[in-house]
Specification:
379 residues, alpha/beta, Rossmann fold, 2 domains, six-stranded parallel sheet
Length: 379
């Protein structure tokens, strides 16, 4: 009697389970058929070119795959404007808003949303992150599949050592470089540690100054000049990136160059930027979001490192320097974009993926003759 009762209960349970699965599947189909569209929350930490390009790439990639903002998807954008406390408040709001997907651009945005989303309510896809494993959100250094099931994305560790090699190539007598950085940024710490290694190998003294916010950048850079820096380096630090004009201003007053691993406007005043094309990083992050929206299991997607290199050389920044810096011809040939007195010159091979922030003199710029791509700027 008892075994028969157990079999009966088991059969009823299986029927109920199957019915529930069918009901939920049917509910999902009916929801989609009635026009429901995904809602996505997107957070960037500050208004700097590299993050603006990342976000633009994300949105463009979604649109290219049928998720057009305002039509087939709703994307709610947030910007913490460089304030960590604000980022944490926004992250909590995003998690409680029950979005279908969360997108983040920058290490600080990754951390804020991941910490607010530790319950795993919503899948988060991140990009524009130096080293996801040092962000303290449960991502492994050694196993790309060892990460929280609701958290996946792309790391982009920028070419720090290459930047210092280029600087030494431009000025063989380079012995000291100054850098201001914010210890509260895990990404900045990782880049600074790599810079220490590179400088030690090249017998360059790395002079460091810590900053807590963008208002302190000018004073920090002045202190580096006073300590004898022959050049100023901008690492992947959002706090300093917001105040990039201050860094360039200090360098110009001291008649020393500024170089970076975070490309921005080509003619902003840095001598060179040896970094990554963040628009392309954003597009790849958007592709990952598309996979998730179409049902892919984030737990089965590995964390990858993507660095589509992007080299900008501004020969105008050589003018007035107190030391004998020069740009070798082979470096000009390698550059994706060159700035000189005639203007901004992207290479033909780079034109098709030219980041949106680059403004060219007119729409018929010769760099686009073979590509059929219109330059951004007035006719």
């Amino acid at each position: 009697m008892l075994p028969n009762l157990k079999r009966l209960l088991l059969g009823i349970s299986l029927i109920v389970l199957a019915s529930t699965v069918l009901l939920l599947s049917d509910l999902k189909r009916r929801t989609l058929s009635t026009g429901a569209i995904p809602h996505v929350g997107l957070l960037q930490h500050a208004s700097v070119v590299l993050l603006d390009d990342t976000v633009r790439g994300m949105v463009d990639s979604l649109a290219e795959n049928g998720f057009v903002d305002g039509k087939t998807i709703v994307i709610q954008k947030y910007n913490a404007q460089g304030d960590i406390a604000v980022a944490n408040l926004i992250a909590k709001e995003m998690v409680n808003a029950h979005f279908d997907l969360l997108l983040t651009a920058s290490t600080l945005s990754l951390q804020a949303v991941a910490n607010a989303n530790r319950g795993g309510k919503t899948v988060q896809v991140f990009g524009a992150v130096a080293d996801p494993a040092v962000a303290g959100v449960g991502i492994s250094h050694d196993n790309p599949l060892d990460h929280p099931r609701n958290l996946v994305g792309i790391g982009s560790f920028l070419p720090v050592a290459e930047a210092f090699r280029i600087a030494r190539e431009m000025f063989p007598g380079l012995k000291s470089v100054g850098v201001a950085w914010n210890p509260a940024e895990a990404n900045s710490r990782a880049f600074t540690e790599k810079a220490r290694e590179a400088c030690q190998a090249m017998n360059i003294e790395l002079l460091e100054a810590n900053v807590e916010n963008s208002n302190g950048v000018l004073e920090a850079e002045d202190s580096l000049v006073a300590r004898g820096a022959q050049a100023l380096w901008i690492g992947g630090d959002v706090t300093v990136g917001v105040a990039v004009d201050s860094v360039i201003s200090v360098g110009q007053r001291a008649r020393i160059p500024v170089f970076s691993i975070t490309p921005g406007k080509p003619d902003r005043g840095t001598l060179f930027d040896a970094g990554a094309d963040f628009y392309q990083i954003g597009k790849q992050t958007g592709q990952l979001a598309v996979r998730i929206l179409r049902g892919a299991d984030p737990g089965q997607i590995p964390i990858t490192n993507l660095v589509p290199t992007w080299l900008v050389v501004n020969t105008l920044a050589l003018e007035g320097l107190k030391d004998s810096w020069r740009v070798p011809d082979d470096l000009l040939r390698r550059a994706d974009v060159v700035v000189d007195r005639a203007g901004i010159h992207p290479k033909r091979s780079a034109a098709v993926c030219l980041p949106p922030h680059i403004q060219l003199p007119h729409r018929r710029h010769p760099a686009f003759a073979e590509c059929g791509v219109s330059a951004r700027g007035p006719d």
